[in-house]
Structure formats: C-alpha cells, structure tokens
Write a structure and sequence with these properties.
The complex is a heterodimer of chains A (about 400) and B (about 150).
Chain A: H1 7-12, E1 20-21, E2 24-25, E3 27-28, H2 39-52, H3 62-82, E4 90-93, H4 96-111, E5 117-121, H5 130-139, E6 142-146, H6 156-161, E7 167-173, H7 185-194, E8 199-202, H8 214-217, E9 221-225, E10 236-240, H9 242-247, E11 258-261, E12 266-268, H10 282-298, H11 300-318, E13 324-326, E14 336-341, H12 346-355, E15 358-359, E16 361-363, H13 368-373, E17 379-383, H14 390-407
Parallel strand pairs in A: 3-15, 5-6, 5-7, 7-8, 8-9
Antiparallel strand pairs in A: 1-2, 4-10, 9-10, 11-12, 13-14, 14-17, 16-17
Chain B: H1 3-8, H2 11-18, E1 31-37, E2 42-51, E3 54-63, H3 66-79, H4 84-99, H5 121-138
Antiparallel strand pairs in B: 1-2, 2-3
Helix pairs in contact in B: 2-3, 3-5, 4-5
The chains are: A alpha/beta (about 400), B alpha+beta (about 150).
C-alpha cells in the first residue's frame, strides 16, 4: 500500500469533501457515477466567465481570441493525454453517451447495411447498447453479444467465433462500470483488425484510472467523459482515427460544422469541426483541461498504484461482512466493487449507509443485462478515487455490520 | 444508529419485510396487475379476488426492498374485505399523504408506520409501488369468475 501518496493534502483540494452528511463526515464512494472537482477546476470555470467569456471561432475581438485559444488548447491537452496523433482526431461532445451515438449514427450511415453485424459485449452500459440497437433497427442489422463467465470476464474464444464476413464494427467497454472488470482490449482490437473490423472502445470508466494510449491500443474510436475524470459535466471526447472521421458523414448540422452554406449546396467543415455543430460547452471544456492537468500533476501511475491499494484493502476488509456476495470477481479489475447482502435489498443498504455519511450507488447501474446475468434485481456499488482513504473503507465495513444488525 | 433510521426501519416495517403477509399467488384471480420500478428493479405482481364488489382476497409476489415489501404487505392487510370504492379511496388517501408534506398518515391505521419514508424522498416510490399497482388493478375489467 503506497503510504507515500499524499492523500490528505489532495483531499484539501476538494472543497466538497469537507462537509458532513447526517452529522457524519461525507464518505464519497460513488466516483464511478461522477467524480468530485478540485478547486482548480472550480476556479477555471469561474475564471472563464469572469475574464474570458465570448463565443469561439467567430470573432476578431480580444475576448473571442482568448476563449478560442483556451478552448483549442484543451483539445491539444486531450490529444496529448490519450496520445492521439492529431487534433483533428479529437471531437468534443457532451459525454461518452453522445460520442457513441455519434459513431452509431454517422459510421452506421456510412457502413451498416441490412443483415450486417455489430458485436457488443454482455457487460456493456446502456450507452453502449442502445445506440447500436437503434442503429440495428434503422438499418436492419443484427447485434451479436460476447458472453462472459461468472467472474464477469469476457469469453475470448467465444468472441473470436462471433466474427463473420458481415461483421462491421465491435463496440466494447474498457472498464465495466457495473463489475470493475478491465477487458483485454488491446488483444480484442487486434483480433477485430485481423478480420478487418474497426473497434469502438467505451473508455468512460477507464480514463480516470489507467493511462490511455490510443496509438498503442490502435482502437478506431475511443470515448471518454470529463465528469468521470474530475472535470465538469457536459463535456466529453470522441477520439477517432482520421481515416474514419474523414469518411463519416456529419452527425449534427448547424453553425461551425460548415465551410459554406447556400440553399443550393453546403460544404462541410474540416475535422474536427465537421462534428462540432453549434456553440459548444466552452466554459466546461476549458475547465476540463484544468482537471486533466490536475490529474497529470499527481501522475496517473501514482494514482493507479494508490487506487489499486485501496481496492485490495477493500476486497479484503469486506470479506468480514456476513452475507456479502461480490458480483464481478475478475482477475483484472479497477476501483469499483459491486456486491449484495443476501436478503437485504441494495436500496435499504444504501439508505442506511447514507445515514452514516457514506455515498454508494444502488440499483442496476445502467447495466440491466449484467443484473439479469447475475440474477440480481440490483446491487450496491462502492467506487473509489484517489481522494478516498483506508479509514473511509473501514467506516464502510463498520456501516455494513450495522446494516446486517438492522435486518437480522 | 441514527434516530431517523429507527423511524424508517422501525419494528413493524422490518417485521412486514421479513414476514410479509399474503405473499402468495391467487389462482383464477379476478384482477392481476404488474408494477415495476425501473430505477431499482423492484417488481410486483398483485392478485385480487373480487366478489360482489368486495375484495375478499388479495396477495402479491415479487422482489423488492424492505420498504416496498412492507408497504405491499401492509396494503394487503388494509384492503381485505373492503369494497372497491373504499379501496380506491384508501389508495387516494395513502398516495396523497405520501407525496404531500403536510398531510399525515395518522388516520390510516397501521399504514402510519410508513410515515418515516416521507423523510427520504428517494424512497417514496418504494412505498407507493404496490399502491400504484393496486390502482391499476382497480381500473381493470374483472375476468369472469364463477361463484359456484
């Protein structure tokens, strides 16, 4: 356990963590749902509206130049963060959900014909299921599902068998929000490429916990969300290989994504702007860069090591809780722990934990097929971040003893 | 444990959760209705046996949290042998009391134990699931039942 990690100092950077819930210090263990924001991000937001607010790409006045520079600077920061080749490959969207919808719509329009096949996995979040279902319905295509085992690991042999001459795209999650499983996506991407099939990776849960290198992964698309990465809501990223983005038709039409408009003919703008219609979420995009810089300053390797320590400590400590069953026990996993207490509904667990100041998520986690697979109506999920502590995990365990007491 | 946890999870509720009354099916039920809360996965099937405008038997099946189970169990006890009109009225009173801040559950007998749920807005839907299902059942047509 990395005892050199400056967690107490880091906690001071997050004003929201200083409060009490029901008279107890807040213990925020719902990071997979959204993360808290460091002062630097909050300041960036305030600073933008106080000093630099203007519409971007349009003006010759100073404020517009400042806003545009800050906005485009974020694009460059994101490019570096995920090691993409070119800024043209970084598209700003609302979040992972919009990123996937963009690909499903635009790539779908370009490439998916009747009887074509789309491969997704059994552990996907609804955001990486429904857009493909909508596409399949529209274009009369079929979904094929990569199965998983009882540990919540994808069956790679079965995955290979799913490919056919009609397979046009694979869409899988890097890290499962419901199970914490880290999928071997580099291998899975290589397999898909052997069949000439491009791959979209849902990176929403991965980006906060692992270093992302899209060149090394060789994925065709990668999505991530700012608000899962200590940045504001309402801004996310679609990374796409230039090869695809250039061929794909626009997703939304409007200002900024055009070069020239007339009623006879409209010429679309170059990448990345072709996919960025309308005035974007400028302030939050700029604040997002403050989040990425904050994370980079701590260092993703340090973060990963510390969080791994927390995860292992928690997995161990939770063994002592009676009637606790882990859902998702993959060998490779990141910082979410999903579990149930036998005969106690997750809602009841969550409500009692909240009375002790502890925030966890209860329900189906937007992954109903996963709940169905494990035959549970809902689960409890505790998800950690680099501002959580061992002491907080101890409190979680104590609170779970209390839950058992109430119901038994 | 905190005072308001004691209010929410008080004896009667815990009892009705652990030993839910009328948790079974009814063959040839006059009305059957399903309830589902997609936010949490709570599912409920309600069975009513109606003879001469009276609910002579009521039962439920399903899986849910302690609040929704206890509420369903308490509900079955409170509507047995009531007329359809009385039951509809009880639904409106209960529902109104659960969602309005200043309306109390005092006059609703045993149902008053659910008053604690009002402090937890996120859990009110748990308490009202069975009742919404009941409302749906009351508005259905009966399947023909032979009384011979």
């Amino acid at each position: 356990m990395s005892s050199n990690f400056p967690v107490e100092k880091i906690r001071q950077d997050f004003p929201i963590l200083q409060q009490k819930i029901n008279g107890k210090p807040l213990i925020y263990l719902d990071n997979a749902a959204t993360t808290q924001k460091p002062q630097a991000v909050i300041d960036a937001l305030k600073d933008y509206y106080t000093h630099n607010n203007a519409n971007i790409h349009r003006g010759v006045h100073t404020l517009s130049e400042r806003a545009t520079a800050a906005y485009e600077n974020t694009r460059e920061i994101v490019r570096q963060f995920i090691n993409a080749d070119a800024k043209q490959e970084i598209i700003f969207v609302r979040g992972t959900t919009e990123a996937i919808n963009l690909v499903a719509n635009s790539f779908g329009q370009l490439m998916i014909k009747p009887k074509d096949e789309i491969i997704i996995s059994a552990m996907e979040h609804h955001s990486n299921i429904v857009p493909w279902q909508l596409l399949a319905e529209r274009n009369q295509a079929q979904l094929k599902i990569i199965p998983m085992n009882n540990h919540g690991e994808l069956l790679l042999d079965e995955y290979q068998k799913l490919f056919s001459p009609r397979t046009k795209i694979v869409a899988i999650t890097h890290v499962s929000n419901a199970l914490g499983t880290i999928n071997p996506i580099e291998k899975m991407i290589a397999t898909a490429h052997q069949h000439g099939v491009p791959v979209l990776i849902d990176g929403a849960q991965a980006a906060p916990h692992l270093a992302i290198d899209v060149k090394k992964l060789d994925c065709d698309f990668y999505t991530l969300s700012s608000h899962k990465l200590y940045g504001p809501t309402g801004i996310g990223v679609l990374y796409g290989k230039k090869y695809w983005l250039e061929k794909m038709p626009p997703y939304q039409g409007g200002g900024d994504m055009i070069k020239m408009v007339s009623f006879e003919k409209t010429i679309y703008n170059d990448l990345p702007f072709k996919f960025e219609a309308g005035t974007p979420n400028i302030a939050d995009t700029i604040a997002f860069s403050a989040a990425i810089n904050y994370v980079k300053n701590i260092g993703l390797e340090s973060i990963a090591a510390y969080e791994h320590g927390l995860l292992n400590y928690a997995l161990n400590a939770l063994q002592a809780v009676k009637n606790l069953r882990f859902i998702g026990t993959a060998k490779e996993r990141a910082s979410a722990i999903t579990f149930i207490l036998e005969n106690i509904h997750p809602h009841d667990v969550g409500t009692i934990l909240n009375s002790e100041g502890i925030a966890v998520r209860t329900g189906h986690h937007c992954a109903m097929p996963v709940m169905e697979f494990f035959q549970v109506p809902a689960t409890v999920r505790a998800s950690f971040s680099f501002y959580n502590t061992i002491a907080e995990i101890d409190q979680l365990v104590t609170a779970l003893y209390k839950v058992n007491e109430v119901f038994n | 444990m905190l005072e308001h946890m004691r209010e929410l999870y008080q004896e009667t509720i815990l009892d009705h959760n652990k030993h839910a009354r009328n948790r079974r099916t009814i063959d040839n039920a006059s009305r059957t209705a399903q309830g589902f809360n997609p936010l949490c996965g709570d599912k409920l099937t309600l069975y009513l046996m109606i003879v001469d405008d009276k609910i002579i038997d009521v039962a439920f099946q399903g899986q849910g949290c302690a609040i929704s189970t206890a509420s369903a169990s308490l509900m079955t006890e409170s509507i047995k042998n009531k007329t359809l009109a009385e039951t509809q009225q009880l639904f409106e009173q209960f529902h109104h009391a659960m969602i309005e801040q200043d309306v109390s559950l005092e006059k609703l007998g045993k149902l008053a134990v659910l008053a604690g749920v009002k402090e937890f807005p996120a859990r009110v839907k748990c308490a009202t699931l069975a009742w919404h299902t009941l409302d749906a059942a009351l508005h259905q047509q009966s399947t023909p039942v032979s009384t011979e």
